[in-house]
Structures are given as structure tokens and as C-alpha cells.
Design a protein that fits this description.
single chain; 483 residues; mainly alpha; Hydantoin permease; 0% strand
Length: 483
Amino acid sequence: MATNSTPSVRSSNSSPGSSDSHGPERAGQLETRGIDLVPADERGGHPRRLFAVWAAPNVSYLSFVVGATLILMGLTLPQAIGVILAGNLLWICTGALAASGPVAGTSGSVISRAMYGVVGNKVVLVLTGWLIAAAYLALNWSAASVAGIGLAGRMGLPDSRAVDAVVICLIAGGTLLIAIFGYAMIVRLYAALSVLLTVVFVVVTGYVLAGTDWSYAPAEPLRGAALVATLGAGFTIVASAPLSYSNSPDLARYLPRDSSPVAVAGWTALGAYLPSVVFTAVGAFAATGLDMSDPQAALETILPGWFVPVFVIAVVVNTMTNNGMTAYSAGLSIQSVGVRLARIPAVLVIGVLGTAMTLYAILVFDFLTSVNTMLQLVVVVTGPAMAVAVTDLVLRRNRYDGAVLLEARRGGPFWYRGGVHWAGVLALVVGGIAATMWVTTSFWTGPAAKALWGVDAAVLAGMITASAVYWGATRVLGSIPRG
């Protein structure tokens, strides 16, 4: 079991391709540190700076899209607001995980060795740290690209797939620059962008509220089983965002080790929750008076002509802030698996994969369909993974020794049996199966959901099952000593 002792030396098995000497990270300077331990003399700051770090990516155009989707699904405005408030409460889990960052002093992808074992963690990271991260990069880049392609048309550029591809690649390239410069750039840049993006989106909100139909009611109000099923699907879509952010320790690891866990968790969760709730609700308001089947076109009809380019640029910048964090953490995940790459090349690898998926989503598939389908499907993995991580944190009382976790040695405390912590793997698999049984999408409805009027309870089923299995299995195996 990890201890409370403060590591005094850096692990010899720190990030591949990194050196053992790092200066304090500064904005505008390439971050060279990978997953290796952040020493005490290079830490600083207060947990409250995490508010802006998490607010900037969540002052989001995608929130407008999700909010509008709830109305398009047939919910009334009060029902949609209720789903938005409830689904976003899962940011509490993201905040709780962030509290492990200052304690361990390393990335979340290394901390998860405590849950799955040194070898088992590699398999899990390929799924959660690579494929799902790349899928989220593609989802967000798709949102920005739709906006950017529209702006290119306004500027007189031809409507062609070549122009679309160039726009996508430019947005991806700008995002990867943020991830390459790393932590200090993210902290400094996002503090300013959270204010600027909020100003732009508040102006959009004003125009939306002016045209909101406060007496809106669906043409055919949902009742009974149909209503319950739609509420479940809506909750899954909203909850998918916080469940995807298991990387919160990465952005808290530079804080002093003795930072208040409550403050770290609180500022992280609050920074994400507030803008997510506000702007998802605005999307729902917009759908009462606009045809939000094409969100960007609909919003542009109510904005002054001069403001439309400002709005589009804000959409693109917001997406870059969101994906900058994702690419940053995905690069660390690649190192955690043991790939012999320094952090910056690792970021580029995940960026190329995400860009390829974006090109497919925009040039081949329908954007709105891509959003809804993906958000409902990823919770099958992200929900159980989040539940296992939070349960582990509670069972260990947030006592993680980063130096020991980084050793990754055979026979070490996190080697378990054959390098696999079977309690974690079992919990993730069984939780995933439970979620699959309850998920509902356009092409798949789980048998449990079918038996209960098509209700999508994937998030709750997956998380509760995974947490219970992990707790029980660790007790049976004795893999997390009590005390």
C-alpha cells in the first residue's frame, strides 16, 4: 500500500526520453517533464487557480449542442434543466480524482497503476488514455471544424473537401501547440481565455434569452415510459462529459503536496460545473425558439453580422482549450504504457490519430449523429473507470506514493499477481458489461434497457456495479490493506 511519506528521490524509471533535471515550468517554455515526479521545489500555487483551468474548456459550444439535443429529444424546458443539473453533478468525481495529483506528484495515468497493476494498467490506458482520448479530440475538433468551415465560406473560400481538411488540420495544429508547451502555458493561457470566452458566450446568451420561448412545450409531450427513457438518455449524454475527465490529477500535480484535498477537488469541480450548467442550459433555451438541428447556423441567425466571426473564433478557441488538456494528458498516458517516447512526440502521436478521426467524422459522417452516439457509448467505459478510480482513492484515503508508483518493478507493491490487479480489471469489465446492458443508442439497446421500456441507465448501472465489485474484490484479495 502507498504511504504518506514525501518522496525524496525521483524514480529511476521516470518518463521515457526525459532528463532528470528540470527547471520550474514557465509559460512560453516547452515543458520537458513527462510522467516523472514533480519535486517539491518546482511546485507552487493555490488550488483556486484550477477554477480557470477547468472553466476555459467548459465555456463551450459543445454545451450548446448538448443542451439543444435535450429539447430535440422531446423534453420540456424544466425537464431539460433538471437533467443538466443532475448530469453535471458528476464533476464531483473529476474533482475528487484531482486531489490525488498533489499527493502523488505524478500523472493520473501512473496513479492508476494502483487500481490495475503495472501490466494491467497498460491495457486499460490503451483503451481509456489513447482510443477514447483520440475520440474526444475528434468530437471536439469536429465541433470547431464545423464552425471554422462555415467561417471559411463567409470569407469566400470554395466549398470543397480540400478546404475542409485544411481547416481541420489548422485547428488540430493550434491545439497541439498548447499541449506541447504544456502545464505552465495551460495555467497562464486558460486564466485569460476563461474570461474572454465567458464574455463572448454571455453575449450569445443574451441574444438567445431574448428569443427564448418560455412557454415552450413539445408538440407531443412525452409521458410514462417514453419520458423516463428520454430522461435516462439525456442524463447519459450530459454525464458523459465529466466522466471523460479522469486526467484531473495531471493538472493538479504541480501544486504543493500539502494542498488541501477539499480545495483541490472543490475548485476543479466548481470550475467545470458552473460553465457546463450555464451554457448547456442556454443550448436548451435556444432550442425553444430556433431549429437547432444545425446549431451554428441557428445561432448565427440571431447574432449581428459583425459578431458572427467573433463567435466562430470563440468556438474554435474553446475547442482548442478543451483538446489542449486532452492531448496533454493523452501524451502522458502513452509514456505510462511504456512507449519510449518523450512527452512532445507522444502528444504528436495522439494528435495524428485524433486528426484522422476528425477528418472521417466531418467528411464522411453526420456531426450531430456523431456527437449523440459517441456520448452515449463512451460511458460504457468511462463510467466504470471513474467509479474504480474514486473507490480506490476512498479506500486508500488518498495515500499515493508517486515514487513507488513510478518504479513499476516486478515484485513491487503495485505488481500484484503477474502485474495485474485483478480486482480493478474485474470491476472494469463487470461494470462495462452492466453499462452495456443498460445503454440505449440509435443502433444498440441493451437487454436490460429493453426490458424496462428502453430506459438508459448505463451511467448508474456501470458506476455502481464497478464500485461494488472493486470494493468487494479488494476486500477478498486483501490487495488494499486496511488502516
